[in-house]
Amino acid sequence: MILEEFGGARGIALWRQLRSILSWVRADGPNERRSLTSLERTRARRRLLEPLEGPLPASLLEALLHLPPGPAARPPSEIADACEAVAAWAEEQCGLHTALEYRQAAALLEPDSAPRALAMFASARALAQFSRAEAWFHRVVGLSRRSSDWQVYIEAYLAHGTMVLRMGRLDQARRSFLKALRRSRREGLHLQAGISLQRLLVADYRDGREDRGDERGAQVLERLEDEPSHLRELAEELAFAWLDHGDHAPAARLLDGLTERRIRPGRSGITGSLARARATLGDREGFRDARLRLERLPDDLELASAWLDVAWGAVLLGDDDAMEDALARACTVARHRWYGWIRRGAESVRRARTGELPAPELPAPAPARTERRMELARRILDALEGDSGPERKMGRVSSGPVPPPTRRPGPGSDPHSRAPCG
């Protein structure tokens, strides 16, 4: 996959350097390892890495040149740091499989490091390599428990719960979230406890326990009121859940607030969901405004599904031109990202428009429940009102172990897919 993601001399250099690192890790005895660090081998690697001098920092290239042991060798931890830096750079270039392989090399170089194993677990999960991710998850749990690294332990269970929830394994997801919550409380980690509750409310809504989910939403707000980045995640989770259960007014209020107050202006998923919510409410002008806003947003991993949401909204409004335009945009992005499920979703949209596929019907929400949710939405947006951090201008900034929102896929979508950027 490295040669597919990075062609020419650059791809060859990355592939051969990775092979050299793995050869050292798997070498039998000091003599074989010493042969990999000879002066002649080092000079050959330097020539090999010349194509990377532009895109990679000189210090990173220098670290990759020297494999331990040897008089000029770096310790394994430094080589692992270099591998992680290559992985981060590869991700920026949309080389997610390259990043995965270099993260695995880093984890093998430091086999007792729970954070290295956690990073590898995350990379495998992002590429939907679930068997591989599951194996690394169990490794993370063992290493973090042995070293009492409870932060990593909790992050692993939160991420695992999110992964299996997307696979439809609701009971297993709930167990993982509860393990994270109990450990957070035991160690006095209040922020992590709030995030664990946030994950659990997603499982509650997915299981049809709407009142329980609303209760958890209020609890999370109380715990995370001073954590704006996590409140944004809560707002998204609640909006998506309420949309899924047919309560569009409070969902639209949250999504409007996130976009109009420029709290999450660059998230295509938010804008696509807002378009669908406005269409469901019969608000043609609001639907049109959201659709035009989506046209101006830069590409991201949610863009194809966002346009699919717009297409569903157009079906609800009977706007065939908007539907076809949105489907064309969604499928164009899907072709670049291997999103086969988007094309299947597009077919479902067309079948719904012609009446071959009945549109899903949800019971009308109880007025008291909608009123309670409108109040919760107001409180969340009020808590976010004073935030002026960098995320408002630049997009999401990570500030802890928050997995991405676990939105229930729309009709015709595949919750298991996440493909590299195009």
Given the C-alpha coordinates, what overall shape results?
A: globular
Largest sheet: none
The whole-number mean of residue pLDDT values reads: 82
User: Stretches where pLDDT falls below 50 for ≥5 residues?
Assistant: 388-422
Q: What class do helices, strands and sheet pairing give? A: mainly alpha
Rounded to an integer, what's the Rg over CA atoms?
Answer: 24 Å
Helix content: over 70%
| Total of domains | 3
How many helix segments? 22
Beta content comes to under 5%
How many angstroms does the end-to-end distance come to?
A: 15 Å
Number of E strands: 0
Q: Give the ordered list of helices and strands.
A: HHHHHHHHHHHHHHHHHHHHHH
Overview of the molecule:
72% of the residues lie in helices and 0% in strands. With 422 residues, it is mostly helical. The chain folds into 3 domains: 1-111, no CATH class; 122-224, Tetratricopeptide repeat domain (Serine Threonine Protein Phosphatase 5, Tetratricopeptide repeat), CATH 1.25.40; 247-422. Helix 16 runs antiparallel to helix 17. The two termini are 15 Å apart.
Please describe the structure with a list of short key phrases separated by commas or semicolons.
single chain; 422 residues; mainly alpha; Serine Threonine Protein Phosphatase 5, Tetratricopeptide repeat; 3 domains; 72% helix; 0% strand; disordered C terminus
Short description:
By secondary structure, the protein is mainly alpha-helical. The chain has 3 domains: 1-111, no CATH class; 122-224, Alpha Horseshoe (Serine Threonine Protein Phosphatase 5, Tetratricopeptide repeat), CATH 1.25.40.10; 247-422.
